[in-house]
């Protein structure tokens, strides 16, 4: 820190220079985040100082958080969920496993969690923090959790099953209805990681079942800061039985409320309100349009790639598509799956024009390569 401080003008010219180094979203075709909706920005500005860590001081913001959780729960098939807005999928997954472990306290000394090979790396963090053995079920050829192998991994020490609805790498949905049956049968907690798919699958006709409509599902994570076009950080963890959050409560002696079930203490209200604002503004019809457009663009991309001889690695259920394509066209930022496939996500900023531009650049890349 410099002693005298810097002039605002000089400081902001430095910030602008650094901001210039950030990539603009229009050539990013593999991020699950996107440009926030203008309504999100407006709502965010209104609530910049609010702290959900002390809900007694910010009771209006806290009411909005409760409304967000309620409406997300209704979308996912349960009218009276408990929950709160997390910092994102990672915190939601940590907290879900923490609830599962705490509910199973005393049942076993060596608790394990059964997760799919395709699970997000946040489960590595969660299992590390919570001292849980992570049992990884291999994927089938479509990169879904291999249903036939699941029973081999479940035993009396299993305190939680995890399924992913819309995997980060291939955009597929695990056999969650099968996991729900095991959960019911053996009375094992089931967490569904719908960080991405939670705000996509409800708008897709004939999508695989994944939410609270399946009786075995205990908790669901879904992130408004992905397809919900909210400002980061805005995740959401929901439990069918609100009393489950009692298992993560601690006493908070000097706050306006005396108990807290969240992982973070001080929490942004502004981004949570931004999530609520977008959903209320668009309504389900507006969200339907957003998802329809993203899916249409994703299909356009898959078709265009196929026409150039580049197949998808797996037929996706959401607007994520990964391709058997070792090279990357110039000027684009794409990520790779753990198996090396080219991973794309058609977020709202990836318009039809962006898809066409990308396809043209892939074509140029192939032509150069064949020379
Ligand atoms: C994005 C994602 C996460 C992690 O969410 P963060 O908000 O980055 O913490 C977890 N699970 C899945 C399936 C995801 O797509």
Overview features:
single chain; 371 residues; alpha/beta; Aspartate Aminotransferase, domain 1; Aspartate Aminotransferase, domain 2; 7-stranded mixed sheet; 3-stranded antiparallel sheet; 9 helices; 12% strand; binds pyridoxal-5'-phosphate
SSE blueprint:
Layout: H1 8-21, H2 38-46, H3 59-75, E1 82-84, H4 89-103, E2 112-116, H5 122-130, E3 133-137, H6 150-153, E4 158-164, H7 176-186, E5 189-193, E6 219-221, E7 237-239, E8 250-251, E9 259-260, H8 270-307, E10 320-323, E11 335-336, E12 342-345, H9 352-369
Parallel strand pairs: 2-3, 2-4, 4-5, 5-6
Antiparallel strand pairs: 1-7, 6-7, 8-9, 10-12, 11-12
Description of the structure:
The protein is α/β, with parallel strands linked by helices and 371 residues long. It folds into two domains: 15-36 and 284-369, Aspartate Aminotransferase, domain 1 (Alpha-Beta Complex); 38-279, Aspartate Aminotransferase, domain 2. It contains nine helices and twelve strands. α2 packs antiparallel against α8, α4 runs parallel beside α5 and α8 (270-307) packs across α9 (352-369). Bound molecules: pyridoxal-5'-phosphate. Pyridoxal-5'-phosphate (PLP) binds at residues 32, 88-90, 120, 122, 164, 168, 193, 195-196, 223, 235.
């Amino acid at each position: 820190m410099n002693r005298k401080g810097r002039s605002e003008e000089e400081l902001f010219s430095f910030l602008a220079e650094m901001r210039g180094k950030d990539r603009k979203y229009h050539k990013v075709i593999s991020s699950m985040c996107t440009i926030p909706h203008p309504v999100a920005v407006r709502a965010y500005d209104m609530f910049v100082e609010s702290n959900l860590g002390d809900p007694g001081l910010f009771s209006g913001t806290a009411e909005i958080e409760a409304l967000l959780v309620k409406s997300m729960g209704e979308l996912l098939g349960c009218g009276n969920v408990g929950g709160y807005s997390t910092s994102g999928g990672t915190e939601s997954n940590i907290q879900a496993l923490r609830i599962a472990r705490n509910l199973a306290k005393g049942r076993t000394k060596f608790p394990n969690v059964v997760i799919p090979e395709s699970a997000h790396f946040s489960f590595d963090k969660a299992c590390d923090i919570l001292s849980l053995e992570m049992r990884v079920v291999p994927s089938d050829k479509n990169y879904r959790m291999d249903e036939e192998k699941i029973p081999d991994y479940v035993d009396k020490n299993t305190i939680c099953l995890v399924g992913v609805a819309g995997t980060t790498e291939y955009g597929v949905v695990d056999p969650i209805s099968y996991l729900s049956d095991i959960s019911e049968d053996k009375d094992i907690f089931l967490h569904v990681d719908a960080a991405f798919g939670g705000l996509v699958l409800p708008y897709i006709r004939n999508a695989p079942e994944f939410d609270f409509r399946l009786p075995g599902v205990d908790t669901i994570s879904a992130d408004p800061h992905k397809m919900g076009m909210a400002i980061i950080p805005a995740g959401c963890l929901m439990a069918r039985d609100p009393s489950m959050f009692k298992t993560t409560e601690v006493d908070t002696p000097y706050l306006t409320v005396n108990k807290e079930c969240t992982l973070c203490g001080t929490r942004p209200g502004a981004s949570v309100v931004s999530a609520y604002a977008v959903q209320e503004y668009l309504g389900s019809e507006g969200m339907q349009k957003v998802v329809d457009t993203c899916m249409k663009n994703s299909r356009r991309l898959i078709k265009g790639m196929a026409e150039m001889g580049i197949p998808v690695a797996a037929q996706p259920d959401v607007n994520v598509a990964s391709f058997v394509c070792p090279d990357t066209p110039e000027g684009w930022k794409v990520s790779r799956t753990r198996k090396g496939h080219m991973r794309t996500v058609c977020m709202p900023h990836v318009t039809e024009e962006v898809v066409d531009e990308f396809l043209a650049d892939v074509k140029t890349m192939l032509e150069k390569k064949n020379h």
